[in-house]
Structures
1.
Amino acid sequence: MPASELTENTDIETGKFLIRDAAPSDIPAIQGIYRQAVEEGTASFEEIAPDIEEMARRQKALQEKNFPYLVAIERETGQLCGYAYAGPYRPRAAYRHSIEDSIYILPEFHGQGIGSILMQHLIARCEKGPWRQMVAVIGDSQNKGSIALHRKYGFELVGTLRNIGFKLDRWLDCVLMQRPLK
């Protein structure tokens, strides 16, 4: 499939929010959202937030391989309030038809439907690609919002790794969810 079909740089108006492909100029805001998630939450098992240069490297690497990387912009203020992307599930060759999604939203925008909007568009974009399965690796079984969001979009619970991570002075589970793309 031509790269242009997977990385269609189309702005999508969704009421209060605009969804578009991430640009290099979005990296400072993306890094700020992710830094907060790393330092204050358990959605990511990273303990030290990557700097702007590392986040730019990660974004570029995904987009160069035609993985979707989307941002949500509040139309009224122009603030980047969330982002979502898909990337390889695992590096081994046999996993090449499976991808993993990631969605991060600024806490002050939780409950406004941004996760749903991003998930809808991320899945739609991924369904145009060569992938067959989408996997969610959800840090912390107490992350009820992420689990509910994934369930809403057809992900099924396929397993829970108990006490697999230690962060913020507690043991954390990792919830695995999966949905077909085709």
2.
Amino acid sequence: MARSDNDSWDLASSVGTTATMVAVGRALASRQPDALIDDPFAAPLVRAVGIDFFNRLLDGGLDPAVAADAEATAGPMTEVMAVRTRFFDDFFLQAAAAGIRQVVILAAGLDSRAYRLGWPDGNVVYEIDQPEVIEFKSRTLAELGAEPTAERRTVAVDLRDDWPDALRRSGFDETKPTAWSAEGLLIYLPPEAQDRLFDNITALSAPGSRLATEYHPDGAAALTDSNQSVGRRFADQGLDLDMADLVFAGERRPAGEYLTEHGWQVSGRTRTEVFAAYGRSFPDEAEIVARLRNSVAIEAIRA
């Protein structure tokens, strides 16, 4: 079903399915012998969502006739997810080491950084997402007996609504520097909504605040091509994923350019450069991720 201006979702439908797919990638990446990340909550959260294909992918329950194809598809995507996750992990830990004690994770999905990263005392992590997503994750992690490693504050609001007001009402202090993440988010916003998001972040950011995000020069095609391929290959296995209905096309300003013009000091690295920084080679031979090689990881500091 195509997106609308006031659509909503849970973690088994629409945009929420992509959040669960990303968590599958983190779960598989955490199992690698030379793992870049350790997310012990990813797999149980995915299982709790209950998308049969993803559960069978995690637990080895796929039909043998498609298991090899699934492994060949999941491998490159898992590598991309491992490096992306580690990039954002390190961004937050470096911000904390610099003295920033206020974190905002936009469109948090099944992100478990409030539970799995080693935060300094006094760190507050705000998670913003749809009410159903926030409620599901909070309840599931409580049932797992998970304890946050920082003070976790949830902000159940759609990013298309007045989320800055909801964030303030949750205790956010805009006079203090903040570390912001917009991970895997921008492509699911209309171009004008992307600009509004950055405007709001800028207005809420004290000097010294930091922001990490990613920009796809190929636009919606970069993510649509890779995820559409997954959906086509495994539709008969019960995976209902049509990325063409989820992302917003249209010309959008490069994130780094927009932030620079609005008072941020911006640095960017290509996906292949980020891979190299972690001693990995981008899987160029894998068609499913080929267009993602041009993605740019952005870090910005508010002047």
3.
Amino acid sequence: MIERLQGKILQKKSTEIIIDCNGVGFSAFISINSSEKLPDEGEEVTLYTMLITREESFELFGFYEIFERDVFKLLISISGIGPKSAMSILSSMSVAELQEKIILGDSISLQKLPGIGKKTAERIILELKDRIHKVSIPSEYEVRKEQNLIIREAISALITLGYSSALAEKLINKAISDFPDNNYSAEQLIKKALKLASS
């Protein structure tokens, strides 16, 4: 089993990378999110990997961060989601966002992912809701996830007050700009948004 590669990047594309490890070139499929974080061609990199064996082929999948590989393993454990489909999901949404959507049971957001219909989205939530929270994501991602929850709560509150979803989102985004340190509560955003709406 190939768990990790360390070497020089020979070639990097949006969904594929070739790494020279002591004279041997390894090709691995990667997500767009991983590709954007990788250094330039010619530079050294460490890539976490998973080897998928089939009857007539071997496919290597690479991940810039180990927790992305953890979620990849969870996704391919679900019937109907293969490695390529799992990579498409991880290319379309960050691990932190995906974890959040699954824990919240947000089937509608999951259905927007490539190749994911209603039944598959519901299966992902059913099978992973109690497992994906165990995936450890660094604190910077946790902070972003917490901010997203606060923003969603504030937008929902404005919608409850009668504002359209588009206007509620616009007002909250404007309110956020008044907090350059990104340190805000849902209540603070709501108050600021209502003040903006009345001005």
